[in-house]
Each structure stands twice: as structure tokens, then as C-alpha cells.
Specification:
This protein has 280 residues and is of the alpha/beta class. It is built from twelve helices and nine strands. The protein has two domains: 10-211, Vaccinia Virus protein VP39 (Rossmann fold, 3-Layer(aba) Sandwich); 220-279, rRNA adenine dimethylase, C-terminal domain (Helicase, Ruva Protein, domain 3). It has helices at residues 10-16, 33-41, 60-67, 83-92, 109-113, 131-139, 157-164, 174-182, 220-232, 238-241, 249-255, 269-278; strands spanning 29-30, 50-54, 72-77, 97-101, 120-125, 150-156, 183-191, 196-197, 204-211. Helix 2 crosses helix 3 and helix 9 crosses helix 12 (269-278). The structure holds S-adenosylmethionine. S-adenosylmethionine binds next to strand 1, helix 3 and strand 3.
Length: 280
Amino acid sequence: MAQIDTLPPLREVIRQHELMAKKSLGQNFLLDLNLTAKIARAGGSLEGINVVEVGPGPGGLTRALLACGARHVVAVERDERCLAALAEIAAHYPGRLTVHAGDALEADWPALIAGLEGPVRITANLPYNVATPLLIGWLKTEPWPPWFQSMTLMFQKEVAERIVATEAEEAYGRLGVLAGWRTEAEIVFDVPPSAFVPPPKVTSSVVHLRPRPAPLPCTPAALERITQAAFGQRRKMLRQSLKGLGGDLTAALADAGLRPEMRAEEVPVAAFVALANALK
Ligand code: SAM
């Protein structure tokens, strides 16, 4: 894809606005327009769809989202150096881009999307240093089903594998249980370090998560209490790792279809939910 809009090339934008990447802000920029378009479309057609983007930076993915037809993009960027470049994009797509300067970890998402008409998706090349807490925050959204229709997010490949892992996989842990309980998550493609400026040390992966409309009844807090105890001592048998939680552990394990000598990594999401509810 040679050109997606008539704005200056991203390298030129970065040079003009002196956006030298800051490691402390997890800045690894995507300049390849084919790749940004592929990420923008990974969640399906964008016609009529609003998008929340965290960390637009110089705006490569933002421009792809708008060029691919997103109705409105609401972006949260912490680095004030990027705001002028983003204002140029907003002027190029009148009324379709709103940029909030600030920390996405402190964002009030329902307030930021108030007034938008139509479905909202989250799409972001996340800053690695806050990617997992942001995802956990979205997965713990109340009420559920949440305000977003899907999430298409870039993570370090190792984190992506933990998000999509199921029982008996090495990467299975607390994140996989939380994500698997509330969403259907899949890795859609990997992105090599060479796609970023500057290149990170590791491969990245784009993960697509679709909220389950009716996850098994439980609360994030109850589920976290169990998975923290179980995976906190993941080599121990459940009868040992869960014994401090109170309640009738023997009965709860039996009701969940689990043997007391099983380990956390062998327990499917549904059984964790059953334990969380039994040992509340
Ligand atoms: N979206 C751009 C792209 O794909 O080229 C930049 C992605 S870069 C990996 C992450 C972006 O998130 C940077 O622009 C960085 O300044 C921003 N950022 C870092 N921490 C943030 C935070 N807590 N809240 C909002 N934005 C943040």
C-alpha cells in the first residue's frame, strides 16, 4: 500500500515533530502502512464502528483506522510531544478523531466514549510496560457484556501466549483463566521486531478478544482469589495450594470434578469458576 491518505509519511512526521522514541513510554512505532492496515482490519470491517486506541504516538495505526472507515477514533496518549502530529490527523479527518492527553491506566472509558453512536472496539499497539494491566482492567469491566464489542491488541508474543493459553499448556496461568472466562481469545498473527522503529528485542503478536455474551456466573474478585492461590504455588497440589481459602475444600474439589492432587495448570477455566463460587 503506497499511500493511505495525503498526510506526510510517518518518518517525516516523526522527524518534523522530533518524536524520538522513549523507552520509558514503551515507544516502538509502526511505520509500515500495510501492517497498520492489517491490524486496523483484524477485527473485521470498520464501517460504522467507533474505535478506542491507546497510545496513538505519531499516528500510524490511527491513520489506518480512519482510512479503513472507522466512524470515530477516541485515542488516549500520554506523550504530549505527539499531540501536534495527532492534531494534524484530526484536521485531515474532521469530526472523526478525538485525542485525550493522559494516562490510559487512569482513563474513565465509559465517560470517554459517551455520546458515540454505534459499536465500540478497542484497537491498539499497546505500550509494553502497561499492556497487561490495561488488558486486566478491560477484562474486569463491570457490567459484562462490556462497552466494547472486541479488542484487537498487540502484545509481546510471550504475553499473547499467556492470554490465549488453556489448561495443560505451559503458558497457562491467571491471565489465561481471566481471559478465557470472559472472552474468546486468539492470536491472529505475529509481528517481527523489524516491523517497529526502534525494533524491540522480542517478537510481538496481535491478539483478538471477543467478549463472551454470557460467561459462567462469577465475579472477577472471586476468580482472582482462587487463581492467585492456585498459581501462586503452581507446582503444589490443589489440596495444598487452596487449603488457606476456607470452606469445604474437599467437597468443592469433588463438585468441580477435580482430584485434590491435581495442580493449577491442569484445571480448566470452568472448574476454577466452580471453585471460586464454592469457596467464596
Ligand atoms: N500506536 C503507535 C504505533 O503503532 O506506531 C505507537 C505505539 S507505541 C508501542 C505505544 C504508545 O503508547 C506510545 O505512543 C506511548 O507514548 C503511549 N503510551 C505509553 N504509556 C501510555 C499510557 N500509560 N497511557 C497512554 N499512552 C501511553
